[in-house]
Amino acid sequence: HVIGRRAFPLIRYVRKNDFRASGSGRYTLKPAKVDRRCVQIAFDISKRFGFYSMTFDFLFDQSGQPLISEISYTRPDWGVWICPGHWDEQMNWHEGHYWLQYLILMDMLKIPDLKQPEMEPEIDPRWIADDDSF
Fold it and tell me: What is the pTM assigned to this prediction?
């Protein structure tokens, strides 16, 4: 997910014997698992086309090169909040959970120290993959 000048890590895994990641309910949020080339491509495309908020899906070809398979301007707000942090455009990592709506308000109002509400979404912990079993 790219929101403003931030990229949030979220990898969706496919179901067994399927090619679709949508609806699998299988994710990992570990920044170390994210191919940084995908993050840079997402930033570059967002900047080039003036996207403020966009989600990118990537696939890898046989040689391991990332290819964009889908982009979308919609996403569930918890999909941003559950991420453990984000990269900025210089690829520096920033820890913390953020609500999508908060980031939009902070950027649009140009209030960098806007207070974020203290609330957590209800997330099924089985959705988060903490191993390499996928």
Answer: 0.83
Q: How far is CA 84 from the centre of its chain?
A: 10
- Burial class (CB within 10 angstroms; exposed 0-12, middle 13-18, buried 19+) of 43: buried
- pLDDT tens for residues 7-20? 998 887 777 777 66
Q: Rounded to the nearest 5°, which phi and psi values hold at 14?
A: -80, 160
CA distance 93 to 98: 14
In this prediction, the residues of the chain whose per-residue pLDDT falls under 70 are 19-25, 121-134
- Whether the CB-CB separation of 9 and 29 falls below 8 Å is answered with yes
**Percent with pLDDT over 90 in the chain:** 49
In eight-state DSSP terms, residue 117 is P
Backbone angles phi, psi at 89, to 5 degrees: -65, -20
Helices and strands counted in the chain (H then E): 3, 8
